[in-house]
Amino acid sequence: MRTPSPSHRSRQTSQIPQSHRERAEDLTLCGWLSTLSRATCITFHLLYRAARDIRPHSIRRAKGLSFHEFVAYHGMRLYQGRLTPVQIQNLLPSTGKTCGRFARKHGLVHRVVDLDYGGIVHQLGGDATGLSTGLSTSDPVRHVVLFHGGGYMAPALGRHLELAIGFADRPRGDVVVHMLQYGLVSGHTNQYPVQLQQATSLIHHLLHTQNITPSQIILLGDSAGAHLLLSLILHLQHPNPLVKSIPFQGRFAGAVLLSPWLSLYTPVQAMRDTDAEDVLDKESLARWADGFLGGALPDPWNDPLTAPREWWTELPIEDILLLYGEEELLRDDGARLAGVLGECHASTVAVAVPGEVHVHMVMNQFLLLKKPCESEELYKRWMERHLGGKVVEVAVKGGDST
């Protein structure tokens, strides 16, 4: 294995260069006071709304929602709509902290690699190189590359890492998870195509520094992460002139797209009116899209559904799983993508899941709904099949490492 280049160096997880910070702005004392005051007001508003609509047959409750679901979904929309990206980024744990906690909980090696363009990859599992598992098994090591959602403005959640391991009780010993920590959008910072540059740098590092083959890699993205995943795949075959191209040959073992957010140029008025049943807010989506695009004109990488049809016939992926909820605000994006993939990529399974909202399997756990989740079962079966072989339990490593 070749020695990592200076731009792809590993380091202790606590050493964060200024150029590789996830968020661009830290709150001042006044900023924190304003944020906590606003968050408190939102919470009281939510409690008032909950008390008003606690009756089972309240006309304000969306069809079929339990009281818990109604309050949880409404709360998500309130916090999205009334907090700025900078406030959300400071209130939530960083992606790095979330990865560190996950590694400690499961006794995984946590290796951090600085990428070009300010990106970071958190490698969870395997040995100190991020490659070998150190276990005796005839099955090849699989690598799950995760592009997390959050409107390009929020860090990864702990549930994203549970997603990456297929919601198993414990991580498999023959799987290494690679979480891309991309720059979060705020104001005029980290706008398109920064995240695509960072994702491309990650794939270059895996293929050409760590010598992992595409056939060992499963790509996973939810919401904005699915948008980034598709942008990356299109870029590998048809390079974006704003982003450095990389040598690429072969085919990825698979890709999972969950509730993809694809039509970032759609005006609020044209979005489906399903706010009452989903965790997403239309006005917030429009603001996040404007912040991410920063005035950029549409192109096939930031607006993937406009890519030429022949590009979709050349996707370097073996199998694709596309899941989205029938009740979600972004259902039309999922349906349009399902149509394109169904026509152009034979090895695609696309399911619109009845009664589910945006990235339902993650929200179901994050919001502590704990209800039966059809999309989660479909996803778990797909992951079990594509990770292959019998389950190999992880050997406890004991804390973070490089």
Provide the structure class.
alpha/beta
Give the SSE string: EHHHHEEEHEHEHEHHEHEHH
CATH superfamily of the largest domain: Alpha/Beta hydrolase fold, catalytic domain
Q: Based on CA inertia axes, which overall geometry fits? A: globular
Sketch the major β-sheet: 9 strands, mixed
Q: Tell me the domain tally.
A: 2
The overall strand count is 9
Estimated radius of gyration: 20 Å
Concise description?
The chain has 402 residues and is an alpha/beta fold. The chain has 12 helices and 9 strands. It has a 9-stranded mixed beta sheet, sandwiched between helices.
Write out key terms for the chains shown:
single chain; 402 residues; Rossmann fold; 2 domains; nine-stranded mixed beta sheet; 12 helices; 37% helix; disordered N terminus
